[in-house]
Amino acid sequence: MEKIPILKMGQFLLVTIQVDLYDQLAENLEADLVNMVNKTNARGVLIDVSSVSIIDSFMGRILGNIAMMSKIMDADTVVVGMQPAVAITLVELGLPLKGVYTALNVEKGMELLHSKILPTEQNLEEDDDNDARSSE
Amino acid sequence: MTTMTPVVLNKDSMIIAREQDVVPFRNRVKEHAVRIGMSLLNQTKLITGASELVRNMLKYGKGGIGMIEILSKGRDNGIRLIFADNGPGIPDIQKAMTDGFTTGKSMGLGLPGTKRLMNEFDIKSEVGKGTTITVIKWKNG
């Protein structure tokens, strides 16, 4: 059975979709990804759709589901490389892509994911500082 | 002014019976769209709309037939897609055409969204007999 490979890269999972997904394949990817997030404690999921020529409401729902499920497992999802024609079509179709972060390309997507996990750690430190000051 | 009726230059059809037929049908539509020189954006809209309608037909009409016609009207060419099923039919078309309305678990964007993507959209349905949806996307539309 065909499968979309999921690569682990540090704290993130990387998926490149290079074929037009039929329904079963998309549903399997959704399940595989959530399992992988659980297994690897990944903090982010990056999905590259630069070779995808069509995103219909089904595919959009799958992307939304992945983002929502990953979020519950404490991982952010970023979709990168969407073709302009696909973006225009999605908006006209009325697909919201809720909870999905987007970035122009893989590089920017990785930056975004890094910024998502780093500030929380920095914030914690700042909070500690503030607490220390207030107790003085 | 008289409205010109388009001339059908070429016809093609495919039986849609299972989920695995969705991608091949989309590819077939794309081939025809490329052949008439449709812009990438219009191709994407047409194929996305086709995908929505094929899925609808599978889900609610238990499959059917998808027809592809190459049209010529004046200086413009286009593609007409006809989706015909013998499913249960749609009792309230107006409701089915409303954004967010669904009887399934989907988002209810299929019909109204597809209408926005196409130049022409027509739906005929009879309860107990089936549904036929016809859409047209013009090359320069």
Give an overview of the whole structure.
- The complex is a heterodimer of chains A (136) and B (141).
- Chain A contains 4 helices and 5 strands; from the N terminus they run E-E-H-E-H-E-H-E-H.
- With 136 residues, chain A is α/β, with parallel strands linked by helices.
- A 5-stranded mixed β-sheet of chain A has the order 1-2-3-4-5, with helices on both faces.
- The longest helix of chain A is centred in the C-terminal third of the chain and has 30 residues, at 106-135.
- Chain B has 141 residues and is α+β, with helices and mostly antiparallel strands.
- The two termini of chain B are 20 Å apart.
- In chain B, 37% of the residues are buried.
- The interface between A and B is medium-sized, with 22 and 27 residues.
Could you list the spans of chain A in which at least 5 consecutive residues all have pLDDT below 50? none
CATH superfamily of chain B: Histidine kinase-like ATPase, C-terminal domain
The number of domains of chain B: 1
Q: What's the shape of chain B?
A: globular
Determine the most extensive contact between two protein chains.
A-B, 22 and 27 residues
Given helix and strand content, the structural type of chain A is alpha/beta
What is the radius of gyration of chain A? 17 Å
Strand content of chain B: 25-35%
Counted by DSSP, the helix tally of chain B is 4
Q: CATH class of chain A, anyone? A: Alpha Beta
Shape of chain A: globular
CATH architecture of chain A: 2-Layer Sandwich
H-E string of chain B: EHHEEHHEE
Strand content of chain A: 15-25%
Which parts of chain B are unreliable, with pLDDT below 50 for 5 consecutive residues or more?
none
**Strand line-up across the major sheet of chain B:** 1-2-3-5-4
Q: Count up the domains of chain A.
A: 1
- The secondary-structure class of chain B comes to alpha+beta
Gist of the model:
The complex is a heterodimer of chains A (136) and B (141). Chain A is of the alpha/beta class and 136 residues long.
